[in-house]
Amino acid sequence: MLSNRILKILAESFAIKGLCLEKQPLKSTSKTKAAGRDDQVIHYFVLASDLALKYLQEVEKAQGTVGGVLPVAAAATSSSPLPPNTEYRIGAILETVLQRAPIIMIKNGKLRQAIDQYRSVLRAEETSSTQSLRQTMSRQLAEVLLRGLAESVYSDFAPRIETKKQGKHWKPTKYAGQSLFMPRTEQEEILLLLFISETMAVRNAVLDRSPEFLDARVHSYNNVTAVYDLLCITLSRFGQFHILCESFERAMKFAFEQYHVWMQFSLSLLSSGKHSRAILMLKECMRLQPNNSFPCLLAAKVCLENMGHVEEGVEYAEKALEREKLHPQNLLAQCHLVLGVGYSLMALQRRPQGKRSEYKARAFQSFLRSQSADPYYYLPEVHLALHYAEVRQLSNAVSHAKRALDLNPEHIHSLHLLVLLLSAQKQHTEALTLVNEALEAYPNHLNLLYTKAHLEDYCSGPDEALLTSKQMLLQWKAFYERELKSNFTESKLQRVMSCNKSSFLVRSCDFSDRESGHSVVAAARVEQALSEAMSSLHSAQQARRGPQSLWLVQLQVWLLIAELYLKLDQLSEAEACILEATNIYPLSHQLMVMKGLLHEKRQEYHEAKQCFQNAVSINPLHVKALQHLVCQSSYLLPLNIFTMTGLLCCPCGKVYALWLWTELTHHT
């Protein structure tokens, strides 16, 4: 057995020999000799690495600090804000060789050999001298697995039992035993490496703000942020944003005045659905970079799209626009666009027609400014098409929708909008042809299938539409089964279905129901809360598995099938579909409308009126519920009472008032 002194001398000798051989220029340009020289360098570096690790283990074994644990007395007497410096035992030469050996292997195309070398070093029993080195090499191996190795060619981590052979005493002692966690997939190994690196980096972070520790603080901060950036890349691939939020919670202790960490934390909170906390993080980002318009723009988007705080969202959008004009960042078109969306939502919340027209005009001007700021940006064209559709200028709406598709042919929402515009122009056959072509490219898109069912109902009758709606149920079942089999429950399906959530709540063939479609966001929150409260009263009811947005899609499919059965006068089948929908969200206003239609078919006018009143109490702007409520009143009240009530209370404007008058006259 060699002494510790001889071990260190041998390790440094092999290291120096390898470094000198690497620096020595070749006398010939032969690729064979160059490859042979690189193999020799790698051989010396591997020997030096093994001897260095063995030396450190023997030294700490002799001093009683096995496993990298410092003596209690030494740890208690240290008052430095810096992490304990124990690298004097190994030296700069050996530390360089330990990190350089796998790098040379990668440069020579020996990726698997480099991965094995990283694993070999990390499997060695830890010493206090190699803690920072282990943190660095864990991060480097994670980077190699992320960037340089395909998942299909990954070889799992299965360490072999070393047999007795010559030179075994030169090898470092490695962890062994049945209680060790062995990663079996590439993802498990990457996450294990990053969590190990994160733990060490956070523990060694320098928190002292004194000027003399500036260099050490910057160095430790760079190490930690490198690990967190890799964690963001890895966990985002699997939708595990709640784990990412927990990691950034631990990172807050060294995030003082660091914009990058605050922004990453806010993005992870947004992705995990914690919008209120994300707004607080974005406010801190605004303070840290007062000239940056992106945090304001992102906060405006969250307020408008996720939280329903329209006025606050408009304020953030105006602040973003102000910053963008003073300090351009190529976000001018986006600022005008978000501001226009905010004005559109404010117009929907204003009851006086004058205020509503004012905000609609502001929104239209903002969309035009966004279009002029970036003529090749497709989203302003989409919103201009929506604006023209709302004011019934369908030809202009179609031209802008086609322009949006020219700029971005893969934008499915522009394609869906064009289908709806064609149906609004009574070109139902062309719309059905277009939606069938779109379904060839997107066969699993439930919004397109939903629209196709309505178009088939109009063109071919309810029988053919029923086949499409049943196909939607099969698609939903496939989505649901994949969700349950997945190990990451809040992953891809949640993102896919979230973009479809609002579209399902709007009738696909009636642009005049725009107010109802936008106000349904608040109504959906009310009905979900009421449904959950009512469901909690039934202890026998089992909890539904999967995200709520997925069950909301199934609700819409059942209501569509029920509507088709009502048109076929198959009331028992329609009632069965309504019962299925009731089990999902008992107090949905759309479900109450469907119940009212069923009672109306059975000429049960009192029950139908009660259902429509319940629907209007949750969503006062639901046009179909208002229409049928006034129509039901024609059977129960004198003409002058229900006529004036319908015309005065309808919040939908003069067009609906005239339409209601026509309906009332027809029913009387």
TrEMBL record:
<dbReference type="InterPro" id="IPR011990">
    <property type="entry name" value="TPR-like_helical_dom_sf"/>
</dbReference>
<dbReference type="Pfam" id="PF13432">
    <property type="entry name" value="TPR_16"/>
</dbReference>
<comment type="function">
    <text>Involved in endocytosis.</text>
</comment>
<comment type="similarity">
    <text>Belongs to the YPP1 family.</text>
</comment>
<dbReference type="Pfam" id="PF13181">
    <property type="entry name" value="TPR_8"/>
</dbReference>
<dbReference type="InterPro" id="IPR019734">
    <property type="entry name" value="TPR_rpt"/>
</dbReference>
<feature type="repeat" description="TPR">
    <location>
        <begin position="259"/>
        <end position="292"/>
    </location>
</feature>
<dbReference type="GO" id="GO:0005886">
    <property type="term" value="C:plasma membrane"/>
</dbReference>
<dbReference type="GO" id="GO:0046854">
    <property type="term" value="P:phosphatidylinositol phosphate biosynthetic process"/>
</dbReference>
<dbReference type="InterPro" id="IPR051722">
    <property type="entry name" value="Endocytosis_PI4K-reg_protein"/>
</dbReference>
<protein>
    <recommendedName>
        <fullName>Tetratricopeptide repeat protein 7 N-terminal domain-containing protein</fullName>
    </recommendedName>
</protein>
<dbReference type="Pfam" id="PF19440">
    <property type="entry name" value="TTC7_N"/>
</dbReference>
<dbReference type="InterPro" id="IPR045819">
    <property type="entry name" value="TTC7_N"/>
</dbReference>
<feature type="domain" description="Tetratricopeptide repeat protein 7 N-terminal">
    <location>
        <begin position="3"/>
        <end position="247"/>
    </location>
</feature>
<dbReference type="GO" id="GO:0072659">
    <property type="term" value="P:protein localization to plasma membrane"/>
</dbReference>
<feature type="repeat" description="TPR">
    <location>
        <begin position="589"/>
        <end position="622"/>
    </location>
</feature>
<keyword id="KW-0802">TPR repeat</keyword>
